[in-house]
Amino acid sequence: MSDRSPDLLTPSLRTCVGCRRTERPEVLLRVVLGTQADPDSDRETYEAVPDPRRRLPGRGAWIHRTVRCVGDAERRQGFRRGFRVRGQVDTHRLQLFVAETTDERAGDRS
Ligand SMILES: [Zn+2]
């Protein structure tokens, strides 16, 4: 009777860094860590870069394509944890991307 437990036997689940729910990867948006030199200080700053085609190299984090989950991730420092970096991860570009492509209003694509 131990066949087919989806929780145990699905190796490909990912955790949304916003709401912390697990999903199959095709439901989630992949995000990679970008770095930008900060001219005002000597350190680099980090940026969450949307990777809808899942082609960018590097460590990825996963998130629902919703404004709410991006906001949650920001408040809970989900990207910092997901990418294992110190310091802030800027989500400006990701927020714009999600606002344009969000799943929250279903229906006008495909
Ligand atoms: Zn989520």
Automatic annotation (TrEMBL):
InterPro entries membership: YlxR, YlxR-like_sf, YlxR_dom
Superkingdom of this protein's organism: Bacteria
Family matches, as SUPFAM superfamilies: YlxR-like
Domain YlxR: 14-86
Pfam (any one): YlxR
PANTHER family attached to this UniProt entry: BLL0784 PROTEIN, YLXR DOMAIN-CONTAINING PROTEIN
Name listed for the protein in its UniProt record: YlxR family protein
Organism of provenance: Nakamurella sp. A5-74
Phylogenetic placement of the source organism: Bacteria, Bacillati, Actinomycetota, Actinomycetes, Nakamurellales
